[in-house]
Structure formats: structure tokens, C-alpha cells
Amino acid sequence: MPATPHDLPEVARVARDLIRFDTTNHGGGRAAGEREAAEYVGAYLEALGLEVDYYEPVPRRTNVHARIPGRNPDRPALVLHGHLDVVPAIAEDWTVDPFAGEIRDGMLWGRGAVDMKDMDAMILTSVADMLRGGEQPDRDIVLAFFADEENGGIEGSSLVVRDRPEWFAGATEAISEVGGYSIHVDDRRAYLLQVGEKALVWIRLVATGRAAHGSSVHADNAVTRLGEAVVALGRTQWPVDLTPTTRAFTRMLEDLTGAVGEDPDALARRTGPAAGFLRSTLRTTTNPTGLAAGYKHNVIPDRAEALIDVRVLPGTEQAALADIQRIVGEDIAIEVVHTDIGLEVPFSGDLVDAMVAALGRHDPGIPVIPYLMGGGTDNKALAALGIAGYGFAPLRLPADLDFTGMFHGVDERVPVDSLVFGQRVLGDLLRTC
User: Fold this and answer.
1) How many CB atoms lie within 10 A of CB 75?
2) Residue range 229-280, pLDDT digits in tens
């Protein structure tokens, strides 16, 4: 029998409520907008006695801010942040309505259950537990919920950092998504702590030719030329190139498995369902994500375009673009649509120690491994203010759940028990960091 609202832990109810706001972001300024979800978050925080600020630099692209004063105002503040938008979901492809927030088989289903309304709910409810209990963190906690993260933060965090830097006054570190969750290495559980992000380079490939009748013998076909370039780039096997973070990652996998000296790809494959996600952190990736050409079945167009999502190791952006030009050929134009920086921060220090210790108190004896995330978060925008960002959305997950495969995937879902675990670990961290 489906769970009723009163049967659900608060963290699951909040995550479910957030999923029910359709905050779909198609990119390029085409978005449903986050306003209603932002107002829900703001009302929740106001009910806890916090002063809430909103910033909507673009209509309906709403950002939310609040600050919890700490006992020691001389200490640097910590930022907890999430985003309220989600990528599109094609309802016909899903087992459930992606915006219904359905509970099934002990899991919360819906777009955003993994990326990242689960973490938004964990932030809100862990703060609520602390404040309702009359507790106060040692240092200021800055809460921020951004718009437009799924479009690189162009209409969200980048504008907030530019126009509202005072929101983050005194902050030196930040915590957000895509880290802190468990994987299984062979048959042993471990947690990933995100201490870096690859750089983002979104490009458009453009092929040009000569327009002609669709029935003609025609060698100068832009669509054919583009297709050859897309296949060449999409099938490129980029080599492993380790950074300080991925070296530490592979060393710890060696320690866990005993497979000393094993190829990094082979080590990553030992993580089961997470392998595809983690192998991407070891190299450049160039994935075609969109095609556009033509306007009538019997007309050969003179232009064809492809979108490519390029993720590169920090500092290798220009070298990667040169390699891409060589692969696609000089007759293909490369237009850079959007770029964002790569990040690596130390897997050391008081905050890292506190995150590792918080996990250890709730799941004793389980190792924590640093890793470089293949995608990106709003930590990139905060880096412009000198804030070091980490990924720590703590979730203890079943070994057979392909959690990483559900980022932007179909039938996104998260176990309710994992949400409760994450709320407790995050609350523990806020009390001790």
C-alpha cells in the first residue's frame, strides 16, 4: 500500500513537495522557472525564524538566501547550497509521472529525486532539526538555493555571485551535490567525497555546403560532412590523464581491492554501476547531444549543426579544443557556446575531517574516497568569491541501485531510508564543523 503523507519522514515529504514543482530547464533561457519552488523554500525557512532574501534577475528565475548566525562570528562562514531546477523528463519514457513525487517500493520517484531536490530537502530538514531544538552552529551557515544550474548557472548562481556577493560575506567553504553517497568497490561499501569538478566547454560544430535538390548527385552535402565529424568525435577514445585528485582516487581503490598497479579504467570498473560515471573523471569526454539541419525532405541544406558536451580536466581546455579541431577536420567550424572553470580542492583540512567523521559516526568503518566529478555544480560560480566547494550529499545506498546512472536519466529515484540517513549525517556535520 502506498505511504500516506503522515507515514513519510519530513525529509521525504519536503523532497516530494519539491519534485511536484515542475522546474524544468531546457537551457538557453527556455525554462519553466523556479519561482514557486523558491517560494516554498523561503516559506519553510521563514517558519524556522530565518530572514529570507530573494533575487530574481530574470523573470521567474528565482534564487533564495538565508543566514544562520553562529556562536563564533569570527570563524569563516560555511555555505550550503542547492539548485531548484531540473532537466527535462519525457513522461512517456518513465514508469511513473516524473512530477508526481510518488513513493513506490520504499523509494521516492521523480525528476529531481537524485539531482538535486533530495539534497535540497536534506539541507532544509537538517537545519530545521537544529533550529527547532534551540541549537546554534559554531559558525555562520549561509543557505542558498539557485536557479538555472542545469544551464551552467547563467541565469542563476553566476548572476547571484555578480550582483549579491554580500550573501556570502565571510564564507570560505561550500557544500553541495554529487558527493557523500555510497558506492560498492567489489563487495565493499565506500563513500565518495567530491573535491573537484572537470571544466565545462559546450561547443557547436558547424558544417557548411551547397544547397541543392534532394534527388541530385551532390558531394558538397553539409549534413554528410557534419555526420562524419560527429561520428569521429563521438567515437574518440580519450586517454586516461590523472590529476592529483584522480591519483588519490586510484590509490585508494588499489588499497581497497588489493589490485596494486591495475589500470585506472579497470580499477574504476570495480565500482559496479558507478563505473561509467567514475571512468569519465579520468579523461576528457566529448558527447554529441543535439543535431539540427534541414527544412524540407527534398532540399539538401547548406548548413548543419551539432551540439557537443565537452568535459575536460582542469587546465586542459585549449589543448582539448585543438584536439577536437584535428579530429573533426579543418572544414568544420567550432563555436564555443559556454565555458566554465574546472576545480580541484584539497582532500584535507578541518571541513573534510568533519565530513569524514560525520559519515563515520553513522556508518562506522567505511572508507571515504576523494574523487573528481565529471560534471559541474554551482561551486564553480562560488569559486569566483574565493569559496572552496565540496560535494557532500550523504546517502547510504543499496549495492544494486544504479544511482549515478539516474543523473539526468529515466525513472530517477532515491530510497526514503537514504534520505533519512543523509539528513542525520548532514545535521551531525552542521553541529560539529
Assistant:
1) 15
2) 999 999 999 999 999 999 999 999 999 999 998 999 999 999 988 898 899 9
The answer to whether the beta carbons of residues 170 and 77 sit under 8 Å apart is yes
Residue 279 is inside which H or E element, if any?
A: helix 275-279
Using CA atoms, how far apart are residues 41 and 50, in angstroms rounded to an integer?
Answer: 11
Cα–Cα distance, 86 to 116 (Å, whole number): 8
Q: How far apart are CA 248 and CA 296, in angstroms?
A: 53
Cell of 283: 579523461
Q: What is the pLDDT of residues 15-48, one digit of tens each?
A: 999 999 999 999 889 999 999 999 999 999 999 9
Angle at 192 between CA 276 and CA 21, to 5 degrees: 80
Q: Please state, as a whole number, how many other Cβ atoms lie within 10 Å of the Cβ of residue 239.
A: 8
Contacts of residue 86, Cβ cutoff 8 Å, sequence gap at least 6: 23, 24, 25, 111, 112, 115, 117, 150
Residue 305 confidence class, pLDDT cut points 50, 70, 90: very high
Confidence of residue 1 (pLDDT cuts 50, 70, 90): very low
Residue with cell 565537452: 310
- Which amino acid is located at 209 in the chain? G
Give burial (CB, 10 Å; 0-12/13-18/19+) of 150: buried
Residues 6 or more apart in contact with residue 323 via CB below 8 angstroms: 284
pLDDT of residue 4: 53
The dihedral over CA atoms of 88, 94, 98, 101, expressed in degrees to the nearest 10, equals -150
> Percentage of the chain with pLDDT > 70?
99
pLDDT number for residue 405? 84
Q: What is the pairing mode between strands 61-68 and 77-83?
A: unpaired
Helix, strand, coil % in the chain, rounded to nearest 5? 35, 25, 40
- Cβ-based burial of 290 (10 A; exposed 0-12, middle 13-18, buried ≥19): exposed
Per the structure block, which three cell numbers stand in for 429? 556535520
CA–CA distance, 290 with 308 (Å, rounded to integer): 7
Backbone torsions φ then ψ of 94, nearest 5 degrees: -95, 155
Report residue 53 as a C-alpha cell: 532574501
Condensed to tens digits (0 to 9), the pLDDT of residues 327-376 reads 999 999 999 999 999 999 999 999 999 999 999 999 999 999 999 999 89
Q: Which amino acid is at 56?
A: E
CA atoms of 239 and 264, how far apart (whole Å): 11
Which triple of cell numbers denotes residue 67?
Answer: 543566514
Q: What burial class does residue 233 get, using C-beta atoms within 10 Å of its C-beta: 0-12 exposed, 13-18 middle, 19+ buried? A: buried
